[in-house]
Amino acid sequence: MNLAFGLQSVPLPRASQPIIIAVSGLYVAVVAAIAVWAARRTRTSKDFFIAGGGIGVGTLAIAAMAATLSGFAFIGGPGLVYTLGFGALFIVLPASLTNTMCAWVLAKRMRLLGGARGLITVPDAIGARYRSPAAQGLAGLAILVAIVGYMATNILALGLVLDAVFGSGLSLGIWLGAAVVLAYSAAGGMLAGVYTDVFQGAVMAAASVLVFGYALATGGGLGGISTTILAADPGFLGPWGKLTPLAALSFFFVFGLGALGQPHVIHKFYMLKDPLRLKWYPLLMTAALLVTLLLFFGVGVAVKAEVLRGGMAPLARADDATPQFLLRYTPGLLAGIVFAGVSAAIMSTVNSFLSVGAAAITHDIPLALGYRMRNELRWGRISTVGLSLAAAVVAQLSGTLVAFLGIFGWGLFASTLVPSLAIGLNWAGATRAGALASIATGLVTTLAFESAAYFKLYTFPAGVTVSGLSLVLSLLAFFGISALTRHQAGDIDPDVVLVMET
Amino acid sequence: MAARGGLKAVILGTLAVAAAYASAFFPGGAPRWAAWAMGVGIGLLSVGLLALGAARPGRRLGLLWLPLALTFVILVGGFGLALALPGGEGPATRLWLGLPPRAAIILYGIGILPVLVLPLAYALSFRRMTLDAADIERVRAAAAERSQVPGSGGR
User: For A255-270, what is each residue's pLDDT tens digit?
Assistant: First the structure.
């Protein structure tokens, strides 16, 4: 089993209605206005990579939510619920605890360390924790590998949405989508990214709540939906849906623990102006995330019930669940807002990837090689352009290649960053060798296992998620090698020790 | 003390998840206990990480152990009930808040209940357990002291 299911790679139903085009056009105009505003205020690499370190906790929470959820939450997710039933929810259920976990484990320590050392990237924190440019560079490399594929899949998905709304054709849709994200990312960096994220997050949350209401109304409330489904397909509403218990729980493990290693989300902690405001971060972030995930669940079960009731024909493709529901059961204005919301979700994720990827190229990897870029702002912008072009070209090449590259993302981030960063910042017994071993294990096993599964060289047993297996092997390597090299354990700078003990 | 307990829980949880995955490679596929091991492992890992993150040297968790223990009970109890309760959902199944009982336990228990507990526990214990102005000042002073050391190189 791999995590490729959520990637939007086939055309969406045509949605070229005037109201949808108008709302989508308005959305792009607002994003452009924010980009122009932010570009005028981006003067340093700190502005470009961490929004000048001056955002509030509400902005942080909504921006982190928007970066967490890609188009998968709106298109692939409901389709997955339609296909797998309740088991698909195990991807999003961990949201009830991951944000508080992230706040306790990472937020405070990353923010304090970032402030004390002037850090701008996630691998920076690994380098500081272990006094190891090699660990920083290896983490930067892992992030870069994951990002190119992840971005290509998101750009492809954006192209498909733009094609569905504007009838642009896929190829032009890909270039248009890449150009819009590139324009505001290269000009305004994270400053533009974070404020467009707030706008995009608000659009996503509003769209999700409204569509959830329509989904419940369509099916006669949750009870009505359940009664319809239980009469025809009771396994759909079993606790694991169509999955085995081990497979469903494996999703929970990967998406729960893996949330602590998503660099495009956790690097936003550096941007918070006042660390004391972190007090409300878990509450705000969890509320924003759960509200925005209502659509994921609501549309998936409502469409299933409608199909079973005969109100809709069975879907040719699971990913049609949201577009078909919108076009059939919601007013044009709401459909337009949701299509804009899907674009928003994808763009906010891509923008965050661009920032993190550009930082890996211009900052983390050169530092590991003993070199420091003289003008990180200029090279950050150049790297952003290069990454966007690379992702758009890969997205154009072949659906198969894109799907293959896209499956690495979440799992690679999780297996390379969770042990070394999330646990390492909280456990003085972790050693440099343990961190290097876990990052290398995560990188190699994720690439090898995903390749073997994708090219059908090996079939993993039922219930085994490749990302989960890589994550657990990386954790074992981290603990095992740290134990074997425990004589190195005290090799931590005093200010880092203070942050770890605070 | 709390950090050590949290770390032990994280390591035990990792081993439980590893055992669940390893068992799936046995001939005949994953045995019944694999899902139990995974469920307990997730509970240990989650609560262990929460404790590890919340712990500070020289300070007890105090009342914070209550929400952490409750979270462990919710996770392991919820997964356990879903595994242990008889299945056989059908048209006659009585619904709990619109869902069959086992699905309701998962969605409302594991998906919602921790939201009512953990973020509030974090906020209410923030000044005592997580961060206050004096902590920030100490870190600033340490950073300033480090910057005076020749060759510290900023980062």
Answer: 999 999 999 899 999 9
pLDDT digits (tens, 9 = 90+) for A312-360: 999 988 888 988 899 899 998 888 888 888 887 788 788 888 888 999 9
Instruction: Tell me how far apart the alpha carbons of residues A262 and A351 are, in angstroms, rounded to a whole number.
Output: 14
Contact A395, A451 (CB under 8 A): no
Which one, of A332, A473, A370, lies nearest residue A21 by Cα? A332
**Best A249, A252, A308 residue to mutate vs chain B (most B CBs within 10 Å):** A249
Give the distance, in angstroms, between the CA of residue A345 and the centroid of all CA atoms in the same chain.
9
Phi, psi of A374 (to 5 degrees): -75, -40
Q: Do B71 and A499 touch (CB under 8 A)?
A: no
CB proximity under 8 Å: A 142-161 to B: none
Domain parsing of chain A, residue ranges? 7-501
Q: Which residues make beta-bridge pairs with A243?
A: none
Chain A residue with minimum CA distance to B20: A246
Tell me the three state secondary structure of residue B56.
strand
Nearest to A177 by CA among A28, A341, A387: A28
Angstrom distance (rounded) from CA A185 to CA B87: 51
CATH dotted code for A7-501? 1.20.1730.10
How far apart CA A297 and CA A317 sit, in angstroms, is 17
Sole residue written with tokens 């989904």: A215
Burial label for A30, CB within 10 Å (0-12, 13-18, 19+), is: middle
Q: Where are the alpha helices (DSSP H) in A330-431?
A: 332-359, 365-368, 376-397, 399-406, 409-417
CB-CB: which of A117, A252, A472 is closest to B21? Answer: A472
For B26, the 3-state DSSP assignment is coil
Please, which residues have CB within 8 angstroms of residue A205's CB and are 6 or more apart in sequence?
A65, A288, A291, A292
CA-nearest residue of chain B to A133?
B155
DSSP A13: P
Of the listed ranges A191-200, A292-301, B143-152, the least confidently predicted one is B143-152
ipTM score assigned to the predicted complex: 0.95
* Residue B59, strand partner residues: B56
CB contact under 8 A, A230 and B120: no
* Beta carbons of B53 and A106 less than 8 Å apart: yes
Whole-number Å distance between alpha carbons of A237 and B14:
29
CB spacing of A468 vs B35 below 8 angstroms: no
CB contact under 8 A, B46 and A108: no
Distance from CA of A134 to the nearest CA of B (A): 14
Alpha helix locations (H) across A269-293?
281-292
Phi-psi region of A281 (alpha: psi -120 to 50; beta: other; left: phi over 0): alpha
User: From CA A464, how far away is CA A2, in angstroms rounded?
Assistant: 9
By the 10 Å C-beta count (0-12 exposed, 13-18 middle, 19+ buried), B46 is classed as: buried
- Asked if A223 and A437 touch (Cβ cutoff 8 Å), the reply is no
pTM, rounded to two decimals: 0.92
Tokens of A282: 């878990």
- B40, B49, B72: which to substitute to probe chain A, counting the most A Cβ within 10 Å? B49
Chain B touched by A225 (CB under 8 Å): yes
Query: A427 vs chain B: nearest CA distance in angstroms?
Result: 8
Q: Are A127 and A439 contacting, i.e. CB atoms less than 8 angstroms apart?
A: no
